[in-house]
Amino acid sequence: MPVFASPEFDNHELVAFSADPDSGLRAIIAIHDTNLGPALGGCRMWPYADEDAALRDALRLSRGMTYKAAITGLPYGGGKSVIIGDPRTGKSEALLRAMGRFVDSLGGRYHTAEDVGTTVADMDVLRKETRYAHGFSASSGDPSPATAFGVLMGIQAALAFTRGRDDLRGLTVAVQGLGNVGRRLCRYLADAGAHLVVADIDAAAVDRAIREFGATPVSPDAIHRAKADVFAPCALGAILNDRTIPELGAPIVAGSANNQLAEPRHGAALKAQGVLYAPDYVINAGGLIDVYLGENGDEKAVLTRTAKIYDTALAVFERAAKEGAPTDTVADRIAEERFRGGEKRRAAA
Fold first, then answer.
1. Hey, what CATH topology would domain 144-336 get?
2. pLDDT tens, 230-245?
3. I need a labelling partner for 67 at 20 to 30 A (CA). Which of 83, 170, 278, 283 fits?
4. CB–CB of 98/26 below 8 Å?
5. Any idea where the domains of the chain sit in the sequence?
6. pTM of the model
């Protein structure tokens, strides 16, 4: 599919492709907007069905990073890179170094970090070729703890808005996905006194959650239907769609997965059903904050800044209630006011 014809194309500033025959690298970097600063977004490696699927992911995720940075108040724009391949079998030092050279070829216009299918160790390899790779082992390392903490803040803000208190004791949270972020979120929730219902395609991860947190397991295709106070999607996107929204078993959706809404109209569908949705990019910004502040090793500064996600989410909920609009629409408006304001400031400079 041509770039401009993609339904995910949103006046992106740059879409670049790279193929390295020696290493087998096939990758795409998408830069959505740099009005507030250089584009920042993780490097995802995934066995996409085809190049069109990889392009759609890069375009959609890079746009989301623009909104995430803007609403979080960070001096970055939005970008994303994707590597087409299975991270379990297709990864090599040669491939990662080729990816590092690809990132470096953009001269700092795009900065990357780990994402689905890449690790801190992978960023160490990219770092051999570019200084625009972040989250490497000698710096902040794994951003997952900060991401999970931000999601916890978003969940507590949603509870405060709907219940008048943010105490999790005795409440049930259904967590979909027990990867780096989902597992750490479970730890935060369990420590706060919540009961956990969990699901993951990895049976070992589910068994670990049962042992560590006393979690109740359900099948991955049923987790959204689990009776709970909060549903926390922490796997891949598009979980909120025409089929799942009518089946939701919780009155609050707040999780770390990117692009949880399958279509923009699904934010309104959640509102019509009386479900409070914490927009994903509002509450999963802890990892971005970690990349921004964590390279000086100041973990306290990262957590202090990430804790402000609580106030940001609460402001979105309150404005949405005042305007009678879906929460994702209001979050988009707030972000656009900021990065489009940046465009005006740049033009005036």
1. Rossmann fold (3.40.50)
2. 999 999 778 999 999 9
3. 83
4. no
5. 3-63+77-126, 144-336
6. 0.88
**Whether 271 is catalytic:** no
CATH 3.30.470.20 is held by the domain 3-63+77-126: no
Residue with tokens 């995720």: 61
Do domains 3-63+77-126 and 144-336 share one topology? The answer is yes
| In the block, residue with structure tokens 């025409």 | 242
Q: In residues, how long is the chain?
A: 349
Q: Is residue 282 exposed (0-12), middle (13-18) or buried (19+ Cβ within 10 Å)?
A: buried
What are 128-176's pLDDT values in tens digits?
A: 999 999 988 876 667 889 999 999 999 999 999 999 999 999 999 999 9
> Considering 68, 80, 91, 271, which one is annotated as catalytic?
80
